[in-house]
């Protein structure tokens, strides 16, 4: 795993948790850990490039910062937007109604979220980051 960047190590832990939650059919946690893992990958990228990490959970905000260094992050914009929807609704039972149109994430939401997480992880590896 990464030697000098704990963000990537924590992202790997989120990946493990998301996969485990999928096996256990705990779909809201798959989505939460997928969102968190992608957030940590983006923050790890910024740290690796010597940038300060902003206190935010918004993948779109982090994408904007990453795009100043690597424009290909734009290709993931729709996925970042989708994962951003899961941050609050998957954590709190009293989240605002309507955050997700059909309530809590279902199996398709979970598998899509995990697949997107893995796509971002693969992309990071193409940027020569050992994850």
Structure characterization notes:
There is one protein chain. With 131 residues, the protein is mainly α. The chain has one domain: Up-down Bundle (Four Helix Bundle (Hemerythrin (Met), subunit A)). The chain is 62% helix and 0% strand. The chain has six helices and no strands. α2 (27-48) runs parallel beside α3. It is globular. The chain starts with 5 loop residues before the first helix and ends in a 5-residue tail after the last helix. The relative contact order is 0.19.
Could you tell me the strand content as a percent range?
under 5%
Q: How is the biggest beta sheet arranged?
A: none
Going by helix content, strand content and strand pairing, the class is: mainly alpha
Number of strands: 0
Q: Quick one: overall form?
A: globular
The CATH top-level class label: Mainly Alpha
Count of alpha and pi helical runs? 6
**Gap between N and C termini:** 6 Å
CATH architecture: Up-down Bundle
Give the low-pLDDT segments: none
Give a brief rundown of this model.
The protein has 131 residues and is an all-alpha fold. 62% of the residues lie in helices and 0% in strands. The protein has helices at residues 6-23, 27-48, 59-67, 77-84, 86-89, 107-126.
Topology diagram in text:
Blueprint: H1 6-23, H2 27-48, H3 59-67, H4 77-84, H5 86-89, H6 107-126
Keywords:
mainly alpha; Four Helix Bundle (Hemerythrin (Met), subunit A); 6 helices; 131 residues; single chain
